[in-house]
Amino acid sequence: METELKDLENSDNNHHHHQPLEPIDDGLSNVERPLLKSDSSLSTNSAIAATAAELEEMEKKYAAYIRRDVYGTMGRGPLPLTEKVLLGLAFVTVLPMRIASALSILFVYYLICRVCTLFSPPNRGEDQQEDYAHMGGWRREVIVRSGRFLSRFMLFVLGFYWILESYRDLNYVDKSTTKSEKIDQAEEHERPGAIISNHVSYLDILYHMSSSFPSFVAKRSVAKLPMVGLISKCLGCVYVQRESKSSDFKGVSGVVTERIKEAHESEHAPVMMLFPEGTTTNGDFLLPFKTGAFLAKAPVLPVVLRYPYQRFSPAWDSISGFRHVIYLLCQFANYMEVKRLPVYYPSKEEKDDPKLYANNVRISMASEGNLILSDVGLAEKRIYHAALNGFLGQS
Fold first, then answer.
1. Digit-coded pLDDT (tens) for 136-153
2. What is the pTM of this model?
3. How far is residue 32's CA from residue 295's CA, in Å, rounded to a whole number?
4. Strands 238-240 and 217-219
5. Could you name the CATH architecture of 63-375?
6. DSSP class of residue 386?
7. Domain ranges of the chain
8. Which of 106, 107, 231, 251 is most exposed, with the fewest beta carbons within 10 Å of its own?
9. Percentages helix, strand, coil for the chain, rounded to the nearest 5?
10. Helix residue spans in the chain (DSSP H)
């Protein structure tokens, strides 16, 4: 499922159209020329040394995407003998069991969604996007409760046996406060319209599903996938057509804004879950935020995710999806830490300036989550991936 908010807002400086961004994968070398090439006039050793030096210089600039685990750059580094033995044993034992269990969980939840949506037409808004997230009664209750439970069970199957969560309860109101103070506190405890999270891995989706079961932004083709398509409609995903021009782009931005306003005003509406960075990092950095999540002027709930590791990092930074899944499933225990920040209520200045609102939330998340602010983005990630493909293709 595509979870990145694909530039739903207009440019911070103008309102010209955008082209939706494509996903990042190991195939970037097919569309971008490798930036690191050896000079044919140099000897092989000199060329490799020069290329390695250039790569090291690039890693300083693109530090947000560097893998520092045992598996090395792009998960293709040389492994010590002990790691090879552990990986081999897990490949023939743990891997098959986890794949079978994960597929079974997915199928069970699909059946639950199928039964709960029988004879119940989907909600269809002005944008013609279908969803079952606005369905009420026992059907919605079963979908949400089973979805949250099975998402957590899926994480357990993937090796996340316990998740360390920390947060502050802001719903407490001191009984000794005056009536006027209680009114002020009640206004300050309005329901957030969106959950804002840093983006480290596709695993982020499973955690947020298990925690709050929100709606996501997804590629329109996801709605047509077997099993996953129906589940995405039950989540209330907002679909974006990546190949379309600005007219559809603006339409999706409007849908997201309306969804955030709706969630803010009604407790029965699904909350939007947005990753304003627009791509994944190695988990130590926080990229600049897109402003699409802040156009609704509604309060947001910031959440910071971390994935501590000893051998393989669950972060999806500079590694292909296939390698990431295999290594993740072969690692017996994985770890996740979650820090829920207080609901962020925008000031009048922030409501009038979405860019200011987004930047202040970002600074707060970086400070509370001990993250490093970085000024790179998805474009730089593509450049870095292309460079890695060019470098490793020569070695």
1. 899 999 999 999 999 999
2. 0.80
3. 33
4. parallel
5. 3-Layer(aba) Sandwich (3.40)
6. H
7. 63-375
8. 107
9. 45, 10, 40
10. 44-61, 81-92, 94-116, 137-157, 179-188, 203-211, 228-235, 246-265, 321-330, 348-352, 354-369, 378-394
